[in-house]
Each structure stands twice: as structure tokens, then as C-alpha cells.
Write the C-alpha cells for this entry.
Amino acid sequence: MKSVNFQYKEGGQVPDEVGLLISILVRYPEVCSVRYLREQHALKFQFLLFASGQDGHFPDKIRDAIDVFHQLESRPMKLCKTEGKKEEDFYRLTITRDVESMNQAEVGLIVDLVKGSSTQELVYDEMDLMEDELEFQEEIIEQILEQLQESELDKNFVAVREDGRVLVYKENFRQVEF
């Protein structure tokens, strides 16, 4: 396994847990933003979709699929919250999951469920990553999720895309560029 080596723009090593947020956005361009919520020890994923033809039960369907996945995996969840909100011409889907019961396979499943909905038009960045880079990002996500299950970050973080870059903000929303 290669080690994670994200660097601050000014130099210095980025904590692996912040690298998790970066890797999720790099690997899954369909994710609009991902936030680490310290108080719930959870990840909050946001997806942006065009508002036309929205199924009001879409968040419930995603939640049901995640429930089934965890039943098959025999791993109980502490937190699984799904919600959708129409905002002008867009629909924002939010999925909040506890870190303790999460793994890379579930992150991929969540993205595939959102992508695969025939009634939804997902807004996302086109990215051309090689297969080995995709696999590497998945390994990073799995490794850091396992580490984070046993520890917590001391701050809230949010990672978003802007102009082809991934930006990470701390709890006080001071911008940190990578």
C-alpha cells in the first residue's frame, strides 16, 4: 500500500484524515462536497442534481439501499440520514453516515446509487483518471476510513471542488489549498 502524502500549498504534511476528504472528491467526481462532522464522528456527502423530474422519495430509496447493504454486511449503523432539498433549478441530496460502520465499498455504493437513478440528472465534474489511479484512491479511502474508525479529528472539515481544484476548509472556514 502506498502511503498518503498530501501537502499544504505552503508546505508541510496534511493529516491523513483530511486526505480522506480529498481522496473522496478525487475518486468520485459526482460528490459535490464532503464534510467531516466531529460531533457525530460522521461524513456528510452532498450531491447536486438538476431539479427536473425529482422523485420526492429519492432520499428514502437511498436510505433503504444503505440499510440493506448493512444488513447483508451484518454491520449495524449508528447514523444514516438522507435528505433532499430543492434549491431553484437544482436539488441537493445530502447523506450523513457515521464513520464507525462505513467502508470504501459503501462510499462506492452511495455514489453508484445516486449516479444510477434513471430519474435524476447528476451535476458533476468530468475527470479522466487512469484505472490504477482510481484503485489507488479507493485504497487510500479504505485505509484512512479504518484509521478514522478508531480515532477522531479535533475539528470539523469540509472539502469542495472549485475550478478543477479541491479546497478544504477547517471549522472556522479558513481556506486551506492543496
